[in-house]
Every structure is written in C-alpha cells, then in structure tokens.
Amino acid sequence: MNGIFDNLLKNEIIGYFEYESANWVKSLTNSELVANLVLFLTYRYENGDSCIDLTEIEEKKLLDLIEVNGFDYEFVFPNIHKLKEEINKYELLKEFFTIFDNKLFIKRVFDYEKVIVDKIKILANRRRILKTFFWDNSLNKLQNLAVNLSLLNNFLVISGGPGTGKTTVIKKIIESLLKEDSKHKIAISAPTGKAVSRIIESFKDTSFVDMIEPPCTIHRLLGANNRRMSFYYNEDNKLPYDIVIIDEVSMVDVELFYHLLNALKDDVRLILIGDKNQLSSVEAGAVMGELCSINDYYDVNGLNVFTKSVGELFNIDVEVLDTENTLLDCLIEFEESYRFDSNSGIALIAEAIKSVNINKLEELLNSPNRYDDLVLVDFDKSFIEKVVNNYREEIKRDFKKAIDKLKVLTPYRKGVFGSENLNFIIDKKLKELFDGKDWYNGKQVIINKNDYLNDLYNGDMGIVEVEDNKSYFLFYDLNSKEYRKIAESLVSGYELGYVLTVHKSQGSEFDDVYFVLGNKDSEMLTRELVYTAITRGKDRVVIAGSKDVLINAVKRKTNRKSVIGKLLYGSSQ
After folding, report:
1. What is the pTM of this model?
2. Which of 440, 458, 459 is nearest to 449 (CA)?
C-alpha cells in the first residue's frame, strides 16, 4: 500500500503533508481504510476544503476522487456506517480528527470554524444606539442603509461585485464613525499587498487619511512572526482598535480569519467587505461564501433581509422572517454596478454568470464580438502572438505602467494552458524581441512567498529594470509614491508574472484581461472561477477557448466543504 503513496508523491499528485499524515496514521492503526481517509482529507485540505463529506465518498474509488488515473490501485471507500465505525475504533485518532454533521475534519480546523462561529454570534448580538441618522443623496438606499448598519451593529458583512460602490461606502462609513467620535481607533486591512495598495490609492485624497492607521495586510496587522509561525496580537494581546475593516474577505482563509477574530477586543466593531460570488481563498476555507450562505437555510431572495423596522426606514420592501437570528440584520449585498454602462459586454456576461442565466450567456457567446469590451477567440498560435505583441507595445510605451495595462489569466498552473508554460512561452518570445537577453526592462514578476526581510508578500507584482548590466526589481509603493528598487540577487521567492492563475489575480484589476479557458472541460472550471477572471477586466476581456467549456463551467458551482454556514444559520431553520 505504501507504494501507491510513494507513486502519488513522486508524480506530484500529493505533497509531503498528505504523504506523511497518511503514513503516520497507517503506522498507528494498521488500517488501510483510515490511512486512505486521512490521505483524502489532507489532500482536500491542501486544495481548499476544511473537511470531507463522508456521504459523498461512499462506494467511490480513492483515485477517482483525486481525479487521477494510470495507477494500479482499486481501493473503494465503503458506506458511511463502516467509515464512521472504522474512524471511531481508534481512540488516539480523536485527538487529531473529528466528525461533525457526517463530515470528517482535522480537529484543529474544526476548532477554528467553531471559534469563528461563536465569536461572530457574540458580535452580531451586540447593538449600539444610532445617535445620528445618516443619509447622503449621492448614495442609493442600500448604500445608505449599509452606513447606518455600520453605526448600529458590531458586525456587518457587505458583499458586492466590481463597481457596486463598496469603496465609496467604506469611505462614508469611516467618515461617519469619526464624526461619531474622532478618537475612534480605526484599522483597515486586506489579505494581500495588491489589495492594500488599491485601498491606499482610493484613500489618498480623503479628509480622514491621517486619522486612521495606514492600511496594511492582515498578517502585518496581526504582527506576523514568520520564524515562530505566530502573531504578536492574539487572544492574550488584543489589537488596540475600536473598529476593524477587512476588504477582499473572499481571499481570507479559515485559519487566518480565526487568528484575526481571536485578536479583536470584545467590544470591537468588525466590518467585512468582499464579493460572495468570487473564488474562495487558495488555502482552506470559504469564509465569505459561508457568511453569505443564508439562502441555503432560509427561503429568501438574496442577502438583503432585514427586520421590518430597519427596512421601513429606507422604504425597502423586506420579508419578515420568524427567527431570532440577529445575523440577518448584519448582511447586505450591493447589486447595482456603476462601472459599466448597459451596453457593456463585461457587465452583461458577469451578471449572466452570477445568476446562471444560460440563455443570456449563450446569446452573448453566439455574437461574441458584438461588444467592444467582450471578445471570444480560439486558443491558438495567433492568440499567443497577439498577446506577445501587445505586451511588447505596452513595455515599449512605458514598461513601468505595463504591469497594470494587461494580464493573461488561466485556471491552471500546470499543462498546456497553465501559467508556468504560458509564462515561459511569452518570456521566451519577448526575449527574442529584446536582443535575446534574459533580463530586460519591463520583465514582469510576482512574489510567490512572503519575504519579511525585503517587505515583500505573496502576490506582490514587480517589474525588472536593467541598469549598468545589473538587474533590479521595482515594486511601486503607494505610500511614498515611488518605486522601491531591490537587487534581483536579493529576492528568491518569485516567478514570471505575465500570466497569473485566476486565484493569484484576486484583488487585482487590469485594463485588458486575456482569459485562457482552453478547450478541455475540467471539474476545476467553476462558475466562481469564470466570474472572478472576467471581473478582473476594466476595459476589455478576451476569452480564449471553447464556448461549450465556458457554459459547462458556469453550470458548475464551487462546492467548498465547511460547516461555518451550518453552525451560523442551520440551527435557526
């Protein structure tokens, strides 16, 4: 049996975490079933799930579940009763694994989710007196309501797609909170450096910019100690802020969110902003999606569910539910987009994807060049040549600004359509155009691991500048409005940045997006992935691939495994 684990590791289908966990459990229990359960659990954890649903693996082959073939191993999981019986047979395993709602967890991860739910319920149950009613004619009803709820609630979740006014409302919320009390200590944060840069850029001309803490990543907010794998601010040393605002919450994983909640003061006001329709974090958990999963437990239309009294204040037609779940007054969704006009192909296809309107989607794809900002093309040699030529022109025009002008996005890291292969091809062709040199002005890179010494973080994008035959990385600092220059030899954790996986692109926007969908369907192509890719484009989106593959992807919803939504809403059903 160990042979199959060795082969899966050798072929990079699993990593060392899965490999060592499964072998360790096998040595303790001598059970092939438990070892395979742990292998699949840790495999799914590494691919974003907090747990595995035991009802979904009954009578299924292990290798089918991890979507791999070509190996001589026919193990099939038994029914759920046998699965539970086998797990419960070993007392020692209860210290490391737990079953809840027919789902198997690494116990540590289940504890994270339980603490998250408990702390959110406490915050949601706290209300403040609304001293001053807020109204701004430049905002719509829901935006005005969101500002008032931020003054009234200790917990608020605002969801909305690109261009729905989330940033504008954040500014109004901060202004209102400071008007309420100018001594409020306010911190605003986001999971990535790129997302923080966008916050800094949008706040630069505000009246309150010097009255709040400079925006920073969540890791920096908590005082991450990379060597000790710990945080300066924690359960025993609370963050000193009265209000904490977190943007791009869809990118926050369950473990980081747990550490954030643990570090908050008991009377803090927590405001979360994101897009529930986007992809979840690369790491395990689906925090934003689970917080917004009310429709799975209540028969309501959207997130806009409020008590009758709150709704009537804003002349909003609300459905009054027979429930005491205070979270219903803490969720709000913006749907009206101000970025695109009614003739925008990007706006129309994004809405069709979000609402799973297949008829509208087919209508758009059957006339793909009808809109200036939406194009559907084949993925072929001419497509690559066009991308390379566009990169070359932008680099020649202004290599420092080219990094925000266009970007190629792909669902994959490996393979023909993968970021590694496409980056290699584009870089090779650009080198030929720039005298065959490995290093040239405008070469694009992205940091792939946190580098605290150089103040660089996973997802930071940089450009190369060659000076006196020496290569430097430039990273734009929105605080100083200058480029930081770091010698290439001093940076180790980076890769080419012309092509990003869709996951890596979250929190970023580009004028033109080339989305390489390809012509081969896959289970990893989902509605959330396609929506996230398309909404990264501001001026134009070019989809390279098959119309049928795109339609199939939109029909397929990402099914991240977690019980946060169940614990928040299920008991009140």
Report:
1. 0.81
2. 458
